[in-house]
Amino acid sequence: MTRTYLLFETAAGYGLYQIDQWDQIGSDLSLDELVSNSERFSGTVKFKAFQPFRTAKEALENMRSITEGEPTLLLTNFLSQNLPQSDHVLAIVDVSLAKSLSHKGFKVIYDSNVLELVRGCRLYETKRLTKLASGGTSFDMNNFQVGLGHSYSRSKLKFDPSKQDKPIINSVSLLDTLTKNLNSFAMRVREWYGWHFPELCKLVPDNKTFCEAVKLIKRKEEFDFDNLEPLNELLGEELALTVKKASRHSIGHELADLDLKNILNFADNVIKLDEMRTKLSGYLNDKVSMVAPNLNCVVGTLLSGRLISHAGSLVNLAKSPASTIQILGAEKALFRALKSRTNTPKYGLLFQSTFIGKASNKLKGKAARYLANKCALAARLDYFCDVNTDVYGKKMSEQLTKRMDYLLGGPQHDKNINVMKQAHEEYKQLSNLAKLNEKVKRTPEDQTEEKPKKKRKTPAKKNKEQNETEPVNNVENEQKTVDKDSESGEKLNHVSESEKVPTVDGEPAKKPKKAPKKKKEQPEDSEKSSKLVDGVSAPESNPKKSSKKKKEQQESQSAA
């Protein structure tokens, strides 16, 4: 009979439960009653084993792998240790995780009944698992779940930390909406104020300057046209004089106070929107030059931002081929042409580039292909290079101008490989400078704190060091033995000379005849030492034997 087990994943670890009467649960329609009744649920779903997470890092890694549908080594070891070898089935909630476990040899099931049983485990078994995970200490499961959720979301948001292309996408969309709103609001101001001074709308085409002129003039009857200094600063002398002449023969009617107040408020809003757009365009320029400097040099700030936003990210733009970049933004026309079997479009967003605008109608296709090729190279360089520089982008922009001159009948330009070699040499120099700057930025305190780690010696290195040190140690030991032998000989001579002559019946005994010969023993000791140095060993003298002979001689003299 096959046994059914349930895997319950929590923030604290993995829980394994044995389910009794799985066939009845699958055929029974009152599964909600089983989950709602705690006693009946505990009798049906029995606790089997629990594997806690040791650290928060381990919990995050397991959570990330489970969401991706890949079982970790901890999970597979836990299941293989606690599940029987045969006649068992494992119930799992996630379909992708169940498929990956089935590839590893586990018998797996997943259906709607498993979801209900997991819901019951969340209701009744969370307290038990928290106690097992804490080991008797105070452990707040809710706080741990919140912290794990924050760390998981933080890791998902940091999927592309080095390339900050998400703000570029948002700023491009915001810039488009700002320009649309600004144009519509400026048209309303022109139409509203045109009933009073219609000639000013034709003379001043810029929206911001028109709104500033409206705030300055207000009513044309009350404005002092004799003092044209503020109007000259805003419009210039020639345009200020034409406005003065037009005000004398204007066909507009008078404005009420309430209408003028609303027009001025609306003009203030238009000026603020224009200032906001200029700030946003400056921010976009800085961001694009930091994230994609080479692409910025090739097609400009706004067009490079549009390409990144349309592709979704800089990664997608770098991975896409030049043919895809060429028709980005013209998807509707492409599918319409494929459906009707007509000619496909030659360009999409790249049509906004000045490089294609300068080309003639016959050369626009060639220009679009060449520009798309350079955009693909620039995007890949921006994403995959270690140091963000615009060296390659500047060379590519020079190539674009020379290519356009060549298409129009100019001289032959340099080959791409030669230009890229020059750019690569400059990039090497910049990368070396960046590495030096990083080393200089490190303070000496940081260098002292970062001590080099001791490398473990391999057995081969240890044997080499022992073989190298053995001859040196042998020579040192030989020198030590020679010194010891010479010192022992000198001590023996000193003892023999300093020995006192024993007395017999109060009279001093005569010295033995062999005593003066001991002075000649020093060269013998030196000869012994030289023999030792040469590697020949000499017999050592015993001071005990010499003392015994002296005693025998003294006894013989006393007996005589």
Automatic annotation (TrEMBL):
Which Pfam family, just one, is annotated for this protein?
Nop
Which superkingdom is the protein from?
Eukaryota
**Key word Nucleus present in the record?**
yes
Question: What spans are recorded as compositionally biased (Basic residues)?
Answer: 511-520
Q: Where is this region: Disordered?
A: 432-560
Q: Which UniProt keywords apply?
A: Nucleus, Ribosome biogenesis
Where is the sequence biased in composition, kind Basic and acidic residues? 436-452, 477-510, 521-531
**Where do the TM regions start and end?**
none
CC annotations in GO: box C/D methylation guide snoRNP complex; small-subunit processome
Q: Where in the cell is it found?
A: Nucleus, Nucleolus
Domain (Nop) spans: 291-409
Which coarse location class applies to the principal site listed for this UniProt protein?
nucleus
Which GO MF terms are attached to this record? snoRNA binding
Which segments does the entry list as coiled coil?
none
Q: Which GO terms describe its biological process?
A: ribosome biogenesis
User: Per its UniProt record, what PANTHER family does this chain match?
Assistant: NUCLEOLAR PROTEIN 5 NUCLEOLAR PROTEIN NOP5 NOP58, NUCLEOLAR PROTEIN 56
Q: Which family does it belong to?
A: Belongs to the NOP5/NOP56 family.
Protein name, UniProt field: Nucleolar protein 56
Q: What is the lineage of its organism?
A: Eukaryota, Sar, Alveolata, Apicomplexa, Aconoidasida
